[in-house]
Every structure is written in structure tokens, then in C-alpha cells.
């Protein structure tokens, strides 16, 4: 058994020198290099049109990543690279993806478990029963989205809080729904920018070690202003009247175990933070320990007959956003292949040397309103530009909130366009882009005042 274990480890182990990545190919002008870049652009075109084509975003990106690496490996062999250099690059990308996958899988599983136990539905029901005016609901849902997205992803936050808004939707409340949805998108993206757990991009920056855990919270005031500035402008166009009374809906209660699951989620986050800070363990390990808590609680529920029927926590794992998780796979490996060819070196020189880090980071934030912030941030991390902490905080902020400029610029906006058909549209969001851009500019300006 011992020898068998050694043999298995030798088969899957990364070569000892794999951490020393082979130099890039420098073939950005070659026909194969241009074809690889074109495949990535075309695949991302399909991602941007997912709403209209119905083609899930993971499918074209995974296909593109596979073909990019096939061509990149062929190009590497033609330039004298061997097995170890090519595998070293691939295993480096695999390590980056594995850390991201495990962290997000635990987070999504906990979110699904709390959703299934009615944690978020109770909040929606409570708000809908209070006699708030449309304008009060505009602010309440925005503030909830801002803080909720600091530990839940922006798409989940947008859908949960959007359900509250849709509870008051009728033909006389179109402006309220449209403006509230814009507000939720801005709030969800801004709230995720100041917390390592709030967005994929902040998680990536934290795990890369460029910004320490506590240093993210220096972005709280800039992120808050990014949300508050457009909200203050839009509130005057939200009716201040009361929604029409609706028939009393059935009372929603927390299901058995809801409080314990929520408490374990908080404990899991604490484990991830303390493990990274004091023991230098990557955050995904703390999250996996937290997942074991949830698994053992699930087992307790099953053997104690706490629920009617069988309760299986793996149903929550199954219901995770696998399209999103596989999309990240495609992004990580496609960008990794393009980096191997040499495109990120070229991009890094153009942005961070010719333009300078501040202009580059602000520009990339605006670019993330068209291209998802995840490949933008992963590209920046792969470039390894020389920047101080304030500049790393800036790129975290700009890529996090830049997607609010357009309704298709973030997962939150795309999700709400589906949820609020007839109420929230691309053009309805675009009309308010100037005030959202004002919030974007104010947040950057305040960041430099506060953080240098």
C-alpha cells in the first residue's frame, strides 16, 4: 500500500521546478498566435450574447481554452520547448483554478443551504409586509444589496433582493422597479469591492497576496460612495407614495437548522481568515474545513430525523452555479495560454509602462463594463505589474464597480434583466449611466485621498 501511494503521488505530482515557469514564447505576431487571440475574442462574443443565444457562457470559453492550448503547445514545441516547460505552465494555471474552484464551491454550497432553509425568503417576506414607500424600499433594498454582497456573490445578491422589488411590481411602478434594479446592480457590485469574500476579483487579489485581508476594508468608503452618489441622484425620480395594499401572503418561517447553518457559514469565513493570516494556509483550506462542518450538520439532521424525509447536503453542492465555475476554468486556461504565447507581456507594457498604473487601472475598470471583470483581473494578475498596495486596491475597486456602467457589464445586471423583463432593460440602465459614471469617478478620487 505504501509503494502504491508513492507511485500514485509520482504520477500526479507537479515537477519540482514547475514553479519556475518557462519564458513566454514571444509569438504574438505569428499566425498561430493571432488565431489563438481571435478564438478568445470570438468565444467572449458568445459570452456577451448569452442572453439572446441561450448558449451557456462556459461552453464557448472552455472550447476556446482547449484549442488555444493545443495551438500554444504546438507553437512551443516548434520553438524548442519540451514536456516539462509546457506542463509546468498548465499545472500553474491548474493550481490557480483549483484554489478558486474550492473556495467558491464552499461559498455557493452555504448560500444554497441558507436559501433552501428560507433564510433569504424570510427577509423578503418581512420587507414586503412593512408599509414602506417606494422611495424607502429603493434605499432599503440598495443598502441590503450593498452589505449582503460583501459575503455573497453579486448575482445571488441581485436575484434575492430583486425578488423583494418584484413583489411590489405592477404597471404603475415601472420607474420604481427600473431604478431599484439599477440601484441593486450598483450596490451589489460596490459592496463586493471592499470585501475579500464579496467578489471573484477581490478573492483573486487576496489569494495572490497583493492586498492583505484588512487592507480591503480601506475601500469601504470609496465603495459606499460609488453606490450612494448615483442613488442620491436617482431617488428623486422614485415615487414617494405607498405601494397598493396586497392580500396577506402566507407567513414564511425559517426551516429547522437555518440559524445553525448561518452560524457555521460565519465560522467558516473566520477559519479562512485566521488560517491565512496566522498559519499562512490559503483561504480555500479554511473554507473546506467549514464545508466539513456543514456536512457533519447534515449527517446530524439525517440521523436525528430532524426533517421529514432524507436531508442531503450534496443537493446544495449539486445546485451550485456550475456554469459559472466551469466558465472560470475556461477563462483561467484561455488567458494562461495567451500569456504563454506572449500577449499579456505586450499588454502589460502598453498599459502599465506606456500609460502608467493609474490610467491603466481606471481604463481597465471601464473595460470591465463590456468584458467581465474576472478575465480582466486574471489578466492583470498574470501580468504581474509592479504596483504598490494603493494601486492594487484601485484595480480591485475599478474592476469591481466598473461593471455597473452597463446592464450587461456584470452578472448582477444580466440576472436582473432576466428577472425583471418588461421593467428593467439595457436602455433603461443606459439612460442613467452618467450618474453611475459620476459615482465611479468620485470613488476613485476618494480612494486616492484616503489611501494615497
UniProtKB/TrEMBL annotation:
Keywords: Antiport, Ion transport, Membrane, Signal, Sodium, Sodium transport, Transmembrane, Transmembrane helix, Transport. The chain crosses the membrane at residues 28-48, 60-77, 136-169, 175-195, 216-237, 257-274, 281-302, 322-341, 362-382, 394-418, 430-450. The keyword Methyltransferase does not apply. This is Sodium/proton antiporter (NhaD family). Residues 1-18 form the signal peptide. Residues 63-400 form the Citrate transporter-like domain. It is found in: Membrane. The keyword Transport applies. It is a multi-pass membrane protein. Belongs to the NhaD Na(+)/H(+) (TC 2.A.62) antiporter family.
Amino acid at each position: 500500500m505504501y509503494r502504491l501511494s508513492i507511485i500514485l503521488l509520482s504520477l500526479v505530482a507537479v515537477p519540482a521546478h514547475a514553479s519556475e515557469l518557462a519564458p513566454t514564447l514571444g509569438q504574438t505576431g505569428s499566425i498561430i498566435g493571432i488565431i489563438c487571440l481571435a478564438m478568445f475574442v470570438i468565444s467572449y462574443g458568445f459570452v456577451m450574447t448569452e442572453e439572446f443565444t441561450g448558449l451557456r457562457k462556459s461552453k464557448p470559453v472552455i472550447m476556446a481554452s482547449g484549442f488555444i492550448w493545443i495551438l500554444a503547445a504546438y507553437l512551443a514545441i516548434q520553438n524548442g520547448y519540451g514536456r516539462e516547460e509546457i506542463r509546468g505552465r498548465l499545472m500553474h494555471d491548474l493550481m490557480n483554478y483549483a484554489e478558486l474552484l474550492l473556495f467558491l464551491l464552499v461559498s455557493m454550497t452555504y448560500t444554497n443551504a441558507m436559501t433552501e432553509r428560507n433564510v433569504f425568503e424570510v427577509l423578503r417576506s418581512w420587507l414586503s409586509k412593512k408599509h414602506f414607500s417606494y422611495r424607502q424600499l429603493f434605499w432599503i433594498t440598495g443598502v441590503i444589496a450593498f452589505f449582503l454582497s460583501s459575503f455573497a456573490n453579486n448575482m445571488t445578491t441581485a436575484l434575492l433582493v430583486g425578488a423583494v422589488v418584484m413583489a411590489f411590481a405592477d404597471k404603475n411602478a415601472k420607474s420604481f422597479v427600473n431604478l431599484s434594479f439599477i440601484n441593486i446592480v450598483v450596490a451589489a457590485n460596490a459592496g463586493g469591492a471592499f470585501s475579500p469574500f464579496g467578489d471573484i476579483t477581490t478573492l483573486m487579489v487576496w489569494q495572490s497576496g497583493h492586498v492583505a485581508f484588512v487592507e480591503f476594508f480601506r475601500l469601504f468608503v470609496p465603495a459606499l460612495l460609488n453606490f450612494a452618489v448615483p442613488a442620491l441622484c436617482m431617488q428623486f425620480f422614485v415615487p414617494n407614495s405607498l405601494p397598493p395594499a396586497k392580500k396577506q401572503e402566507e407567513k414564511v418561517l425559517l426551516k429547522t437548522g437555518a440559524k445553525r447553518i448561518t452560524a457555521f457559514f460565519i465560522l467558516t469565513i473566520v477559519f479562512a481568515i485566521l488560517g491565512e493570516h496566522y498559519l499562512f494556509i490559503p483561504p480555500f483550506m479554511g473554507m473546506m474545513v467549514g464545508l466539513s462542518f456543514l456536512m457533519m450538520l447534515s449527517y446530524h439532521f439525517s440521523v436525528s430525523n430532524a426533517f421529514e424525509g432524507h436531508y442531503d447536503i450534496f443537493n446544495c453542492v449539486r445546485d451550485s452555479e456550475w456554469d459559472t465555475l466551469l466558465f472560470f476554468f475556461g477563462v483561467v486556461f484561455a488567458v494562461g495560454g495567451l500569456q504563454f504565447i506572449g500577449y499579456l507581456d505586450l499588454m502589460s507594457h502598453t498599459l502599465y509602462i506606456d500609460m502608467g498604473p493609474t490610467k491603466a487601472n481606471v481604463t481597465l475598470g471601464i473595460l470591465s463594463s463590456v468584458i467581465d471583470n474576472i478575465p480582466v483581473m486574471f489578466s492583470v494578475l498574470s501580468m504581474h505589474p509592479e504596483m504598490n498596495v494603493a494601486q492594487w486596491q484601485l484595480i480591485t475597486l475599478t474592476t469591481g464597480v466598473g461593471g455597473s456602467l452597463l446592464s450587461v457589464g456584470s452578472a448582477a445586471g444580466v440576472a436582473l434583466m432576466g428577472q425583471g423583463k418588461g421593467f428593467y432593460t439595457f436602455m433603461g440602465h443606459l439612460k442613467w449611466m452618467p450618474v453611475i459614471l459620476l459615482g465611479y469617478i468620485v470613488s476613485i478620487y476618494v480612494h486616492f485621498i484616503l489611501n494615497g
